[in-house]
Each structure stands twice: as structure tokens, then as C-alpha cells.
Amino acid sequence: MTNLKPCAPAPADLEGDLASLRGDCARMAPHWAVPDRIASLPVSPSLIHGVTVPSKSARLLDAMSDYGD
Q: Are 61 and 68 in contact (CB under 8 A)?
């Protein structure tokens, strides 16, 4: 079942300055968990295979000057 009760919007300080923005960020920071850094090892090119690109996407990229020319 879906909860159809509306949630109260977060208070917005539309006239705030940089100091109030920094305060908002400082209050939100504890809610964000920092993942452990995972050191990835290089992969041999011989192990990279099986990549397919749909023909529609390939034609689109080929038509773009940044990618196809």
C-alpha cells in the first residue's frame, strides 16, 4: 500500500546567504556516510571483452563531430 499522506516540505531560506548555505551543509553532512576507499587494480586488456553497442547509439555517436571525426 502506498502512503498518500503528504510530507511537510523542508524549510527554505530563499533570502539566505553563503553563511546560511554552509550551515545547512554542515547540518546535513553527518547524514552522509563516506564509503571505504577501494583500491582497484588495473585490468589486462585481454580480459576486457563482450562490450556491445547498439547500432542506433553507434550511429548517433558517429554523427557527432566530437566523437566521429
A: yes
